[in-house]
Amino acid sequence: MKDNYEPIKSMKEVPVQLRKLRREYVRYQQAELIYSLSHKKLLELASDAGAIYRFDSTVLINRDIFDAYLERFHEPATSKYRNGGDAE
Description:
Blueprint: H1 13-21, E1 25-27, H2 28-35, H3 39-49, E2 52-55, E3 58-62, H4 63-70
Antiparallel strand pairs: 1-3, 2-3
C-alpha cells in the first residue's frame, strides 16, 4: 500500500492550513458559538463591520471582514504578563 500522507513540514504551516479549511461565511447561530457573543451584540458588531450579507431569508457573516473589525478591540499584553509567566 502506498503512503499518500505528507507530513506538515513545520508547525508554522498549521495555522495556514486551518485558515484554508475554515468557512468564510457563517450564519448567526454558528457565529454566536464561534465568537461567544450574544445574538444582539453579534448583530451590532457585524453590522458596524459591514460583514453582513442578506438574501431571501438567509443572513451570513463574512468572517474575514468581521475578524479584521474585531482586531480594533484587541488590547496589547501588559508588561508583567507579556512573556506568559505568572505575575509575582
